[in-house]
Design brief:
The complex is a heterotrimer of chains A (382), B (153) and C (416). Chain B is built from five helices and five strands. Chain B is of the alpha+beta class and 153 residues long. Chain B has two domains: 32 residues, no CATH class; 94 residues, Alpha-Beta Plaits. In chain B, a hairpin with a 6-residue loop joins strand 2 and strand 3. Classes of the chains: A alpha+beta (382), B alpha+beta (153), C mainly alpha (416). Chains in contact: A-B, A-C, B-C.
């Protein structure tokens, strides 16, 4: 049995029907302009109507979790940046918090503030990438360039702060390696003033646009109950009206000190997810302004032994990454290397909702839904 | 439906608003393109690029004390340090220091491990080459430091 | 033969009407070459304009400001391997791009670029254009079917449904324009393209302003339908890149693919020409009745030369702004030569014999160029419609509106 026919039967099994002349099996990906990397979606179509679909993943599998078992705790930190590479800082923060909990260390307040600033910048950058590519999938080719211009400003701040733009390795276990550079506060403030009118501009381009509304309203609807059943988190969950944000629910890294709101939607459709993410970008700017005002003086690194030997035990720490709940489960056997690291990536879990969201929709909707889920294949396949 | 939204809908106001946004951006001063290599990006001071081995500016001796910490810190085990104990001074002396930058992810852990500021990640970001062997850098290349390609002006 | 060649020189009708086959052939060849040249210019212009909408520079490396980019692309496409999928229907696959191309270029036989600047004037001109242009869909369906692949098939199915349904609304607005031509003493309208323009001259108004806002609405519907007809954004479903990879021409490459592109751009120019002829007074200069007289004729006939001289001036301004270092020496020189060429053309257009013959073509092309710019602007701004929404817009919005406008035009025309 050839490979493709295997997946064909897989699709058939889901509906309990068999392939007949009216049904068309379409392979979308792994080389396709809008599968955001190397996702392969096997669609079963009736004309243009989607009867069912099957995601085939693993084209970008690098065995990150296995690599962890052969690296020391400090050495593994750069690798987590390579999972969700458009939000590398959030990955690093989650990992550092997990190891800190394992060894019982708390990062000093100044380090926490720096972490919040950098991760919130990263959230805006990640949402910028999402907006650009999602809108590109729906057919508007221009916003991509505008959002990437904004993201460039963030990456410039990253480069000045830690020396890298994409896979930053910005944080270390126990705090931050780098002190802020001269003019850091000014740069962040300037960016806040710069990005807010730009977000207004994107809204002007899209929010009221009838084509955009037609393409996104009631497309890929996922109700709150379904979200919870599928374990979907992040903006997708919040757009369905469930007010669940880990920054509020179980604050980490000093998020309890900041005043911000959790934007929620009502319908759980693609349009609401768009509105929620846009609102989140505004909230991030709000957090940034508070953090840059209240950044305390002090050390940026807690006392962490040179050779990390955590006690035997296990720990699960999750943070609110731009795409949803990003969790790290680390088992220590008392040696310098983790016994097992398991990552709970938001993209992978959110992707499982694709079939439910696309049933009965058209081919064009599949593309819009993949875009709105905001998946990064590096994180899905790890 | 009240009159104002209906009028807005009939007169395609939402679509025209979008058109006005894109129209404004045509102004040449909005262009973001950087015409590399004629125009070069500004590289931050902390940029983590190609590694460099620093020498003491006074006597041109290497600062490396061959402690092997960088090799231990490297997650990918790319650094090989060879040293020999000098029988007269009883000190470890560096013989060779190589790094395979083809697999390097420029995480900066080696730089942080170095106790004498001998190893530093420089601002050099242009290391494309035609041969994979060129990625294995030895001590002489690294001590010469950043050698950015100079284009004719 | 020379006799018949020379006899046409001072004619005031098209070669087709004069029955002069030599000049008709020359016109056909010149129009084919000029449209191809326009497509090339359009190719460069679209990249540059789109790039500026998207805060980019666009092509900058091949020639000064990327001026030679379309030629480089053409060479690349010609020399590329001609791939035919093993499972393709060979004959249909081979034929499809030519069907599209022939259908598109045939429409140009009756498009009047000036009173004498058309291959011929048919008394059913507009019907002929609508009929031949709808053959284009055959080529697209053929391409999609012959490729024997899923994406092209879906693309061609979308294309056929889209073109058929938008032609209905388009046809209705064309009828309302034709009805407007009959508002003269005799009460007899015309289907001839030249006749339609002359009717606008006689009535002293472009049809877009006729029975305001009826003409404007009809024109707007035509403008929307023509974007859908030519498969351009936001109605570019048949080749929706993010959904169907490249739609009906996914399996095509190299020369055959370039024929599709040539056909698409030529079709854009063709429908824009029809829109210009029907609504915007065709080749007529602005205010031919109000600002009449030889003085105004002279002033307006200077416009082509002035335009080219301004373009030349802009080019020389950019020559001065080019980067100074030696790597740009050749590019700067090339740009200067290009500027000199533009200036030379501008000076040639000042010669009275040329001036008189060129200026109606100029006004026509200016109007078409505005449509071309709009095409690019739409593409840069709006998302793409979904298939069912496209159908909804076509059948539930445009068609009833077009029908209403048609009836109202008839009523107003009779009551007048």
């Amino acid at each position: 049995m050839s490979n493709s026919s295997f997946y064909e039967t897989d699709v058939q099994r889901q509906d309990g029907t068999f392939l007949d002349a009216n049904e068309l099996v379409l392979n979308m990906g792994p080389q396709h302009p809008s599968t955001h990397g190397v996702l392969r979606v096997v669609l079963k179509l009736d004309g243009e109507k989607v009867l069912g679909l099957d995601c085939v993943i693993g084209y970008l599998h690098r065995g990150v979790e296995k690599i962890a078992e052969h690296r020391t705790y400090a050495q593994f930190a750069p690798y987590v940046d390579r999972m969700d590479y458009v939000a590398a800082v959030s990955n690093g923060l989650g990992y550092c918090l997990a190891v800190e909990k394992l060894i019982g260390v708390q990062a000093p307040p100044r380090a926490e503030y720096i972490r919040v600033i950098i991760t919130e910048l990263q959230r805006i950058a990640s949402h910028d990438v999402w907006l650009g590519t999602h809108v590109l999938d729906v057919g508007a080719i221009t916003p991509l360039f505008y959002t990437f211009r904004d993201r460039e400003e963030i990456l410039k701040i990253f480069e000045k702060y830690c020396g890298a733009r994409l896979t930053t390795h910005a944080f270390r276990i126990g705090g931050c390696q780098y002190e802020t550079y001269e003019g850091f506060e000014k740069d962040v403030k300037k960016f806040c003033d710069f990005v807010e009118p730009k977000i207004d501009e994107y809204e002007e381009l899209l929010t009221g646009n009838r084509i955009w509304i037609d393409r996104t309203k009631n497309v890929g609807v996922l109700k709150g109950k379904d979200c919870i059943e599928l374990g979907v988190t992040g903006p997708v969950l919040r757009a369905a009206g469930v007010k669940w944000d880990l920054r509020k629910a179980q604050p980490y890294s000093g998020y309890e000190k900041f005043d911000f709101e959790i934007p929620v939607g009502t319908n759980g459709d693609t349009y609401d997810r768009y509105l929620v993410r846009i609102a989140e970008m505004r909230q991030s700017v709000k957090i940034l302004r508070q953090a840059i005002e209240g950044i305390p003086e002090g050390p940026i690194m807690a006392k962490v032994p040179k050779v990390l030997k955590p006690p035997v035990g296990e720990v699960y720490v999750s943070i609110e990454a731009p795409k949803g709940e990003l969790g790290y489960f680390i088992v220590s056997d008392g040696s310098t290397r983790p016994y097992r690291v398991r990552v709970r990536p938001p993209s992978f879990v959110n992707l499982q909702a694709l079939d439910k969201m696309c049933r009965g929709a058209l081919v064009a909707d599949v593309v819009a839904v993949i875009g709105t889920l905001d998946i990064v294949l590096g994180e899905v396949d790890r | 439906m009240s009159l104002a939204p209906l009028l807005r809908k009939v007169l395609l106001v939402d679509l025209l608003k979008g058109l006005s946004v894109t129209f404004k951006y045509q102004h040449p001063k909005e262009i973001q393109t950087e015409q590399y290599p004629m125009q070069r990006p500004e590289i931050a001071e902390r940029y983590r690029g190609l590694p460099r081995l620093n020498v003491n500016p006074d006597n041109a001796q290497t600062l490396c004390i061959a402690c092997d910490l960088c090799a231990i810190a490297c997650p990918e085990h790319l650094i090989v340090v060879k040293s020999e104990r000098n029988p007269t001074t009883k000190r470890k002396e560096l013989i060779s220091w190589t790094v395979d930058v083809s697999r390097c992810m420029f995480c900066g852990l080696c730089e942080e491990a170095c106790s004498t500021d001998a190893l530093e990640l420089s601002q050099d970001y242009e290391f494309a080459t035609y041969d994979r062997n060129h990625f294995i850098l030895d001590r002489e290349t690294l001590e010469k430091g950043t050698q950015p390609t100079v284009y004719e002006k | 033969m020379l006799q018949s060649f020379l006899s046409y020189m001072n004619s005031t009708v098209t070669p087709g009407e004069a029955g002069n086959y030599i000049w008709a052939t020359i016109y056909i060849l010149v129009i084919f070459a000029m449209i191809s040249l326009c497509v090339i210019i359009m190719n460069w212009g679209e990249r540059k304009a789109l790039a500026h909408f998207q805060i980019r520079l666009g092509p900058m490396r091949v020639g000064p400001h990327g001026l030679l980019q379309p030629f480089a692309d053409a060479i690349k496409l010609m020399t590329k391997e001609d791939i035919m999928p093993a499972q393709a229907d060979k004959l249909a696959y081979w034929m499809a791009p030519y069907v599209v191309l022939v259908a598109v270029f045939t429409t140009y036989t009756v498009i009047p670029f000036g009173r004498t600047h058309a291959v011929t004037d048919m008394n059913i001109g507009i019907m002929f254009i609508l009929g031949v242009a709808s053959l284009e869909v055959l080529g697209i369906v053929l391409a999609g079917w012959a490729s024997n692949s899923h994406y092209p098939l879906l693309g061609s199915l979308r294309s056929s449904a889209q073109m058929v349904s938008y032609e209905v609304a388009m046809g209705l607005t064309v009828i309302s324009a034709i009805m407007m031509t009959s508002l003269n003493e005799t009460g007899v309208g015309t289907l001839s393209m030249i006749g339609i323009v002359l009717a606008q001259y006689e009535q002293g108004a472009w049809f877009i302003f006729k029975f305001f806002p009826l003409g404007l609405i009809a024109f707007a519907i035509f403008a929307i339908a023509m974007v859908a007809e030519t498969n351009r954004a936001p109605f570019d479903l048949p080749e929706a890149e993010s959904e169907l990879v490249a739609g009906f021409h996914t399996e095509y490459s190299g020369f055959r693919w370039s024929l599709f592109m040539l056909g698409e751009y030529a079709a854009m120019i063709a429908v824009s020409s029809v829109a210009t002829t029907l609504w915007l007074g065709g080749w007529m200069r602005p205010f031919p009745n109000w600002l009449a007289g030889p003085t105004w004729d002279f002033i307006f006939s200077l416009f082509p030369a002035i335009t080219f001289l301004i373009l030349a001036g802009l080019t020389f301004y950019n020559v001065a702004r080019m980067p100074k270092h030696p790597a740009f020496k050749i590019q700067t020189a090339g740009l200067a030569v290009f500027g000199a060429l533009l200036g030379f053309i501008g000076l040639v257009f000042l010669i009275p014999a040329v001036r008189v013959r060129i200026f109606d073509i100029y006004w026509f092309m200016i109007k078409v160029a505005i449509f071309m710019y709009l095409y690019i602007w739409y593409r840069a701004t709006w998302p793409r419609y979904r298939f069912d929404q496209l159908m909804k817009v076509g059948w539930k919005v445009l068609l009833p509106t077009a029908l209403g406008v048609l009836i109202l035009t008839a009523v107003v025309g009779v009551l007048r």
